[in-house]
Amino acid sequence: MPQDVAADDVLCAGSFQGSKCIVVASTFNGITQTLAFCQPGMKSWHVCDGLPIAGPKDFAFYQGKLYVLLRFLARLHAFELEEGDHGVVVSRVEHCVIEGLHDHHIQHIGKLSCNIVVWRDNLLLIVRRYDTTGNGFPRPNRELHQVQVFVLDFSTNPCGLTEIHNFDGDCVFVDSCGCNSFPASLYDGAEGDRFYFVDQYSKYDVNSFDPSYDTFVYTVRNGRTRPLATELSPDNFGAPNGNLDVPLLLLTSK
């Protein structure tokens, strides 16, 4: 994010006049990790440098806090935000220790990919675990081993986990830039109790651009997975020079 970009260039003053909406932006430059915040009316970003959150992240605003998840390490931090003289500022950052996450629930060898999403006044942790013990070349074989969905309980310290297998007919869309939960009835073709994954997990391979993607549907009630109807590939989507970068799920209600 360029340092000279003003908040008013990001938020339309007319649409958000009088709003308390907060925009969070994440940047990566070499080894420097930065989070920046703005609200309508702010003339500059509130920038936080030197944070212990290096790597791909997922974000969720929940009960007045911003939760930031390190996706491939399953480390969760809570940011407390307050109004300063020039707009929103970060007043406190807390590492949320999750009870038994690594010792019990995630006990098999393999790589993790995690997300967080707000669903019906709950903050959910979505965990995908992969078996990477194969000898694929140039990158190891990557086979989906398990998907789990947990409700996070912040009333205890460490916060607890409750696994769920019923989504009350709702669905969750997961892409490389975040998650959203919706009633399945809002979208033609969407099915309840399903997670729709369209996620990029690697981009570069031996100094060349070679993205790989997770594209599948997961059913919460029975733990089954199936492929998406459309294969996600650069050629299929007509991307320039055969390259397809970050995939997104674009949602329009009926």
**First CA to last CA: what distance?**
34 Å
Number of strands: 16
Envelope shape: globular
Largest sheet: 5 strands, mixed
Low-confidence stretches are 1-17, 103-109
The strand order across the widest sheet is: 13-12-14-15-16
Order of helices and strands: HEEEEEEEHEEEEEEEEE
Judged by helices, strands and strand pairing, the structural class is mainly beta
Q: Helix coverage percent of residues?
A: under 10%
Q: What number of structural domains do the residues give?
A: 2
Instruction: Please report the number of helical segments.
Output: 2
Rg from alpha-carbon coordinates: 19 Å
What does this structure look like?
- By secondary structure, this protein is mainly β.
- The chain folds into two domains: 1-96, no CATH class; 99-234, no CATH class.
- It is built from two helices and 16 strands.
- The strands form four sheets. The protein has a five-stranded mixed beta sheet, with no helix packed on it. A four-stranded antiparallel beta sheet has the order 4-5-6-7, with no helix packed on it. Strands 8-9-10-11 form a four-stranded antiparallel beta sheet, with no helix packed on it.
Secondary structure blueprint with pairings:
Blueprint: H1 7-10, E1 23-29, E2 32-38, E3 46-49, E4 57-62, E5 65-70, E6 75-84, E7 87-96, H2 101-105, E8 111-119, E9 122-131, E10 143-153, E11 160-163, E12 170-175, E13 178-183, E14 194-205, E15 208-219, E16 225-227
Parallel strand pairs: 12-14
Antiparallel strand pairs: 1-2, 2-3, 4-5, 5-6, 6-7, 8-9, 9-10, 10-11, 12-13, 14-15, 15-16
